[in-house]
Write a structure and sequence with these properties.
Layout (H helix, E strand, L loop, with lengths): L16 H10 L13 H13 L4 H23 L3 H31 L12 E5 L1 H4 L9 E7 L17 H16 L11 E2 L12 E3 H10 L3 H8 L2 E4 L1 H4 L4 H12 L8 H20 L16 H15 L11 H10 L5 H25 L10 H10 L4 H23 L25 H5 L4 H8 L5 H4 L3 H19 L5 H13 L4 H9 L1 H13 L2 H8 L19 H17 L5 H24 L5 H25 L11 E6 H4 L9 E7 L6 H17 L10 E2 L12 E3 H8 L9 H7 L3 E4 L1 H4 L23 H13 L5 H18 L7 E2 L7 H15 L12 H10 L7 H21 L5 E2 L5 H15 L2
Parallel strand pairs: 2-3, 2-4, 7-8, 7-9
Antiparallel strand pairs: 1-2, 1-5, 6-7, 6-10, 11-12
C-alpha cells in the first residue's frame, strides 16, 4: 500500500519525488534565487551568482532551472499561486536562457568567422521565434520549447581578425543553432534547461535548422499549409532580447501576419482543423491502446487542453484578418476578446477559461511529481490524492470537477467543429453538423430535387464556365448548399424567389470559395440569407457588393438589438489599437477597416428592417446615428494623421442638414454637411481646409471594400462658390444676416432641419482639453469650445427671426414650384415624394410653420422630425383639428411606401388611387398653411 500524502498546507509539496531530488542535490544553491515569485530580474541575478561560483553558462542555466522549479512547486502547491504566475515565470526562464545562449554562441562564432554582413555591411539579425505556449507566454513546467530560427539576410560573414574563416550566413546560423542547443537542450549531469523541438520550421525536420527571412516568406506563400497558420498564430520573437523590440522585426511581422490572417472571413480552415484534430485523437488512441491509463490525458484526450486551444485558435484565424482585436496569443485573454466580440456567449467563455485553468493546473501537478513531460493522470492512488489536495479538493471532488470540465470542453468543441452537439454560438461562433457527411452530390441528382423554375436556373451550371472551373472541393460545397436549399424549399421554409436570387448571388462569388465554406459551415447564416433574399431585391445587391457582411447573420441577438454608437466606436478603437501594435495602421488598412465596420452595421439594420423588427423611423434613426459615429471616428483618425496640424485637438465642428440633420437617413443616402472652425491661429484656414479635404476623401474614396458616403457641401455659406470650411463667426454672421453677404430664405428653410453633429469636445482624447475660460460667451470665441450650444443659439436666432408671413409664404411656395418643375411626374402617376400631395409638400409646410411661428411658440423650435412638429403645430392651433394628425399619419405611410419600394428596387411612382387618402390629407395640410 502506498503511503498517504501529507495534509494540505506547508510541506505538502514534499510529496513530489522531483522536489525531493532537488533538495538532495541543490540545497546549497537554493538561497541564490531571491525570495518570492521568480522574475526575469531575480533569475538573472541568480544566474550571475552561479557564474560567480565557477559554473559555465550551460551548467548555470541548468541549475537555475532547478532553482526556479523548486520555487514554483512550493508556490503553486502550497500557496495556490495563480496559473499566470507559474507560466510567466517559465516563459521568462526560457527567454533568459535563449538570450544568454544566443549571445554567447554568436560571440564565439564572430571570433572564428567574423560577424554576418547585411546589405551595405550592416549587422544581420537572428530571430529566435517561440511557437506554441512559449510564444503565448504560457509555458508549462515541463514543456519543451518549439522554436524556429530565422535570420535577416543571406550573405557571407566578414571573416576573423586575420581575414580568414569566412562562411555563408546559412552555415553561420546553422552552427549558431547547434551551439544554442548545446547550451539549452543537451542533457548533462545537471539535466537540461528545456527540451527543444524544431519540427515546426519550414519543411519540418528535413529543412535547414535556420532559414533566411526571404526563404521563410517564399515557403509560407508557396508551401504553407493550413495547419501551419494555427502554429504561427502564437509565434513571437523571444530572443535575443535586443532584437525583440528592434525595427527590423517589423519585416518579420510583415511576412507572418498575412499568412496567418487573411483579408476575408476564412471559414475554409474548418476542414483543416478537423483533419488536424482527427490526427491528434487517432495518435492519442493508438498510444492508449493496451494502456487504458493513457486515456486520461488532460491535454490530448477528449475535452482536454488542446481542444480549448483549437476552439480559440479557430475563431481567431477565421475572423482575425478583418477583426484585428481578436489577435492575441494567450488563450485566456483570447477567450475574453472572443466573448467581447460577440463570437461566444460570455458564460461559455468563462466556463472554458475555468476549464483551461483547472486542466493546466492539473497538468503542472502531474509534471511536478517526476519532472516528466507527460499529461496523463498518475495511476497511484497517493499521487492522485496529492494532486487533489494541492487543489484544495478531496479525491472524489477532484475527479468530479475534472470530468465536468472535460465534458463541457468536448461539447463546445464538437459543436464548433460539427460533432454531435446542436448548440449554436452567436455571430459566426459555431457551426452546423458535418459528421457522417454523405458522398458528394452530382449536379444531375441535385437538379432532380428542384422545382421547375429553380431547376431551369441551376441547369445553366452544366455549361457555366465558372462552375466548370471549380475545384472538386468547391464544387462539392456548392452542390451541397443547393441540396440543403432544396430541402428547405420543399419544407416551405423559403420561397422560390429567394432560391433563384441565391443562385445568382452564388454565381458571382464562385471565385471566392470562402463564402461557400461559410454558408456550409453555418446553416443559420444560410437560412437567414435566404430569408433576406426572399424579402426584397436591394439586400441581394448589397450583399453582392459586400459579401463579408453575411457572417453577421449568425448572431442570435442580431434581430433583437439596435445600433449602439458607443459600442461601435469602442470596437473600432480596439481594432486600430491592435493594428498599431503590429505597425499595420496605414491609411489603406484604416480606410478598409472603416468601410467593413460601416457595411456590417448597415447590414444589421437592413436585416432587422427586412424582418420587420424595427420601423422605418427606427431604421432612419439607426442609420443617422451610424453616420454620426462614422464621422466622429473618421474625423479623429484624419486629424491624428494630418501632417500640418498645428494643435493636438482640432477646434472644429460639423453641422448636418437635410436627411442627416433631420435623422431621416436612408440606405445609400448622401450626407449634407457643413464644416466650420473656431480657431484664431493664423494657420487655421489653411490647416482646416487640408483637414476637410482629407476627411471628405476618406469618406468618399472607393477602396477594395467600397466607399462610405457621398458628401454634399452645397449648403455651406455661398454654396459651391463658397469656402469649403469657414470660421464659425463667419458662418453665424451669414446665417443671421449680419453684413452684406447673407443667407437666402431657402437656406433658412434648410436650417430648420440642421443639427450639430460633432465638435471639439467629441474629437478630444480624454484629459487633453484645457479648462474653460472665465467670462461670458464672448470669451469662448476662438477656443472651439461649446460649439454645440453656440450653434443651437445661431439656429434659434435664425428660425425665430422676425419675418413677414405673406412674403415668407410667397418665397416658400415659389421654391416649391421650382422643386416640382425639376422633378416632373407623368400624368396618371403619383410620386410619393415629388407629386402634389407628396412628402415634399409636407416638408415645405412644416418649414413655413417653423419659420413663421417659432418665435412665439418654443415647441416648434426643436429639430424633432416632421411627424412630431405636425402634431405640435396642431396642438398650438396653427392647423385645424385633425389636419396635423392626419398629415402626420399620411407622411409616415408615404415614407413607408418609399422605403419598401427602394428595398425592392421599384419606382416610387404608384397609381394615385392606392394612396388617395394620404394625398388628400397632405393637400388639406397645404391648404391650411398656404391657402388655395
Amino acid at each position: 500500500m502506498q503511503p498517504s500524502p501529507p495534509p494540505a498546507g506547508p510541506g505538502i509539496a514534499d510529496h513530489s519525488r522531483f522536489l525531493q531530488r532537488l533538495h538532495r542535490r541543490y540545497a546549497d544553491e537554493f538561497p541564490l534565487l531571491p525570495a518570492g515569485l521568480p522574475t526575469r530580474d531575480t533569475m538573472a541575478e541568480a544566474l550571475d551568482a552561479l557564474a560567480a561560483r565557477g559554473y559555465d553558462t550551460g551548467a548555470a542555466l541548468r541549475i537555475l532551472r532547478q532553482l526556479v522549479l523548486e520555487r514554483l512547486i512550493r508556490l503553486d502547491c502550497e500557496q495556490q499561486a495563480p496559473l499566470e504566475d507559474v507560466t510567466r515565470a517559465m516563459t521568462w526562464l526560457a527567454e533568459l536562457a535563449l538570450d544568454r545562449a544566443c549571445v554567447q554562441a554568436r560571440a564565439e562564432l564572430d571570433a572564428r568567422h567574423g560577424a554576418p554582413q547585411g546589405p551595405g555591411g550592416g549587422p544581420v539579425e537572428l530571430w529566435i521565434i517561440g511557437m506554441g505556449k512559449l510564444g503565448a507566454r504560457e509555458l508549462n513546467v515541463s514543456s519543451d520549447i518549439d522554436l524556429i530560427y530565422v535570420y535577416e539576410h543571406d550573405g557571407e560573414t566578414a571573416g576573423n581578425a586575420e581575414g580568414r574563416g569566412r562562411i555563408s550566413h546559412h552555415e553561420y546560423f546553422g552552427q549558431a543553432v547547434k551551439a544554442i542547443y548545446s547550451l539549452v537542450g543537451d542533457t548533462t549531469e545537471h539535466g537540461f534547461v528545456f527540451r527543444v523541438d524544431l519540427a515546426l520550421r519550414p519543411n519540418g525536420n528535413s529543412g535547414p535548422a535556420a532559414v533566411s527571412l526571404a526563404a521563410l516568406e517564399e515557403y509560407l506563400q508557396v508551401q504553407g499549409r493550413e495547419w501551419e497558420r494555427f502554429a504561427w498564430l502564437k509565434s513571437r520573437v523571444v530572443a535575443p532580447r535586443e532584437s525583440v523590440i528592434g525595427e527590423p522585426v517589423q519585416a518579420l511581422r510583415g511576412v507572418v501576419l498575412p499568412f496567418v490572417f487573411r483579408r476575408y472571413l476564412d471559414y475554409s480552415v474548418f476542414d483543416a482543423l478537423r483533419s488536424l484534430h482527427r490526427q491528434i485523437r487517432d495518435h492519442a488512441a493508438k498510444r492508449s491502446a493496451g494502456h487504458p491509463e493513457r486515456a486520461n490525458d488532460v491535454k490530448l484526450s477528449r475535452g482536454g487542453i488542446r481542444e480549448i486551444e483549437f476552439i480559440v485558435q479557430l475563431l481567431q484565424v477565421v475572423r482575425g484578418g478583418q477583426f484585428p482585436e481578436l489577435r492575441c496569443r494567450p488563450t485566456l485573454e483570447a477567450l475574453q476578446r472572443i466573448a467581447r466580440a460577440g463570437l461566444m456567449p460570455t458564460a461559455t467563455a468563462d466556463a472554458l477559461a475555468a476549464a483551461y485553468t483547472f486542466l493546466r493546473q492539473v497538468e503542472h501537478r502531474i509534471q511536478y511529481l517526476d519532472d516528466q513531460q507527460t499529461h496523463v493522470l498518475p495511476t497511484r492512488d497517493d499521487d492522485l490524492a496529492w494532486i487533489a489536495q494541492t487543489l484544495a479538493l478531496s479525491s472524489c471532488a477532484f475527479l468530479h470537477q475534472l470530468d465536468a470540465h472535460r465534458e463541457l470542453v468536448a461539447q463546445e468543441f464538437d459543436t464548433l467543429l460539427g460533432g454531435a452537439g446542436k448548440k449554436q454560438c452567436s455571430k459566426g461562433g459555431c457551426g452546423g453538423p458535418r459528421a457522417g457527411t454523405p458522398a458528394p452530390p452530382e449536379l444531375e441528382t441535385v437538379l432532380g430535387q428542384l422545382p421547375p423554375n429553380v431547376r431551369a436556373r441551376v441547369a445553366e451550371w452544366r455549361t457555366h464556365p465558372r462552375v466548370q472551373g471549380l475545384s472538386d472541393e468547391s464544387r462539392d460545397r456548392l452542390l451541397r448548399l443547393v441540396q440543403r436549399t432544396a430541402r428547405w424549399l420543399a419544407d416551405g421554409q423559403v420561397n422560390e424567389d429567394a432560391v433563384v436570387r441565391l443562385v445568382g448571388w452564388l454565381e458571382s462569388l464562385l471565385r471566392r470559395d470562402v463564402y461557400l465554406a461559410l454558408l456550409l459551415e453555418r446553416p443559420t447564416v444560410h437560412e437567414h440569407l435566404l430569408h433576406l433574399l426572399g424579402a426584397a431585391q436591394w439586400p441581394a445587391r448589397y450583399m453582392l457588393q459586400h459579401p463579408g457582411v453575411i457572417d453577421e447573420l449568425a448572431g442570435e441577438a442580431l434581430l433583437s438589438e439596435r445600433f449602439v454608437p458607443e459600442d461601435f466606436e469602442h470596437e473600432l478603437a480596439l481594432r486600430i489599437a491592435s493594428l498599431q501594435t503590429t505597425g499595420e495602421d496605414d491609411d489603406e488598412t484604416l480606410l478598409n477597416l472603416l468601410r467593413r465596420a460601416h457595411h456590417a452595421e448597415t447590414f444589421r439594420t437592413l436585416a432587422r428592417d427586412v424582418e420587420r423588427r424595427i420601423t422605418v423611423e427606427q431604421v432612419a434613426d439607426d442609420l443617422s446615428a451610424l453616420a454620426d459615429s462614422v464621422l466622429r471616428v473618421t474625423a479623429r483618425w484624419c486629424w491624428s494623421r494630418l501632417k500640418n496640424r498645428h494643435r493636438e485637438v482640432p477646434q472644429f465642428a460639423i453641422i448636418g442638414y437635410g436627411k442627416l440633420g433631420g435623422k431621416e437617413l436612408g440606405y445609400g443616402s448622401d450626407l449634407d454637411i457643413v464644416f466650420v472652425f473656431d480657431d484664431d491661429d493664423d494657420r487655421a484656414p489653411e490647416v482646416y481646409s487640408a483637414f476637410v479635404r482629407k476627411l471628405i476623401n476618406w469618406l468618399t474614396v472607393k477602396t477594395a471594400e467600397g466607399d462610405l458616403f457621398e458628401i454634399d457641401t452645397a449648403l455651406r455659406p455661398n454654396g459651391n462658390s463658397g469656402l469649403l470650411v469657414t470660421s464659425f463667426t463667419a458662418y453665424a454672421n451669414y446665417q443671421e444676416r449680419r453684413g452684406s453677404n447673407t443667407a437666402w430664405t431657402w437656406e433658412h428653410q434648410a436650417m430648420t432641419r440642421a443639427r450639430f453633429l460633432l465638435g471639439t469636445e467629441d474629437l478630444a482624447p480624454p484629459g487633453t482639453l484645457p479648462p474653460l475660460p472665465l467670462g461670458d460667451g464672448a470669451a469662448l470665441v476662438g477656443t472651439g469650445r461649446h460649439l454645440q450650444g453656440r450653434f443651437d443659439a445661431v439656429r434659434e436666432a435664425v428660425i425665430t427671426a422676425p419675418r413677414d408671413p405673406a412674403s415668407l409664404r410667397e418665397e416658400i411656395v415659389t421654391m416649391r414650384e421650382r422643386v416640382r418643375a425639376a422633378h416632373p411626374v407623368p400624368a396618371g402617376q403619383f410620386d410619393v415624394k415629388h407629386s402634389v400631395g407628396g412628402m415634399v409638400d409636407v416638408e415645405f409646410a412644416i418649414q413655413y410653420l417653423v419659420l413663421s411661428q417659432s418665435a412665439d411658440h418654443p415647441s416648434l423650435r426643436e429639430n424633432r422630425g416632421n411627424i412630431t412638429l405636425l402634431r405640435r403645430a396642431e396642438d398650438a392651433g396653427f392647423l385645424p383639428e385633425g389636419v396635423g394628425t392626419a398629415a402626420a399619419t399620411a407622411y409616415r405611410t408615404l415614407r413607408q411606401v418609399q422605403h419598401r419600394a427602394r428595398l425592392n428596387e421599384q419606382p416610387t411612382r404608384v397609381d394615385p388611387a392606392t394612396l388617395q387618402a394620404e394625398r388628400e390629407a397632405v393637400l388639406a395640410l397645404w391648404r391650411a398653411v398656404f391657402g388655395g
